[in-house]
Specification:
There is one protein chain. The relative contact order is 0.14. This protein has one domain: Formyl transferase, N-terminal domain (Rossmann fold, 3-Layer(aba) Sandwich). The protein starts with 7 loop residues before the first strand and ends in an 8-residue tail after the last strand. Helix 5 packs across helix 6 (168-191). The strands form two sheets. An eight-stranded mixed sheet has the order 3-2-1-4-5-6-7-11, sandwiched between helices. A three-stranded antiparallel sheet has the order 8-9-10. Helices cover 31% and strands 23% of the residues. By secondary structure, the chain is an alpha/beta fold.
């Protein structure tokens, strides 16, 4: 048997797992040279865990209420994550803020996808807030994770227009269409060793990025 040397991914998810499914599908059809080694979360009934198990992937969830504090929960969760020996961790709809102690060993190896053009609209309810602010563009960002809420260095973004008559649901659907290709494009670069984090600077092929890569304008490199 030939050893599989593809990068190993651990995915953190709290919800329905649509980005997780996009990753699973891309691995299965050869578009992403990686292996999903495990899926972990904070909600035992999250559909993302069911998606993982259906694909034959180990899936585990811990309940925050079973721990005395956030640091205790994070430590236990990341012990589970470490057990599958991932090269990278992907937060795909994981809804809890991660503490500095848990993140420190994974600096530069954990990314998140967020439904806004960061640094705008960090946190929740991004689509409604974008409409209320009257912005012309909205979108999604993939960034390295730090202890600051949605505050880590941004790797890449995808932009969509905010159209007359949009509500939070219609805008969310338009953004979601960009999230999957954006996440996969970044993962392809990350798994190939082309995207790295040097201190707080994102580098592509060893050179600092002057601005986040833009999926919509075809600036993500092949």
């Amino acid at each position: 048997m030939v050893a599989d040397h593809s990068p190993r991914l651990a995915v953190l998810a709290s919800g329905r797992g649509s980005n997780l499914q996009a990753i699973i599908d891309a691995v299965a059809d050869g578009r992403l040279d990686a292996r999903v080694a495990g899926v972990f979360g904070d909600r035992p009934k999250a559909f993302a865990l069911e998606r993982a198990r259906d694909a034959g992937i180990e899936a585990r969830a811990l309940r925050p209420r079973d721990f005395a504090d956030r640091d205790g929960f994070d430590a236990a969760l990341f012990n589970e994550v470490a057990s599958v020996q991932p090269d990278f961790i992907v937060c795909a709809g994981y809804m809890r803020l991660l503490g500095a102690a848990a993140l420190e060993p994974w600096a530069g190896r954990i990314i998140n996808i967020h439904p806004s053009l960061l640094p705008d609209f960090k946190g929740l309810d991004t689509h409604a807030r974008a409409i209320a602010a009257g912005v012309a563009e909205h979108g999604a960002s993939v960034h390295f994770v730090t202890p600051d809420l949605d505050g880590g260095p941004v790797i890449a973004q995808a932009r969509v227009p905010v159209l007359p008559g949009d509500d939070a649901d219609t805008l969310a659907a338009r953004v979601l269409e960009t999230e999957h290709p954006l996440m996969l494009a970044v993962l392809q670069l990350l798994c190939a060793g082309r995207i790295t984090l040097c201190d707080t600077v994102v580098e592509l092929d060893g050179q600092p990025l002057p601005a986040p890569l833009q999926l919509a304008s075809k600036r993500l490199p092949a």
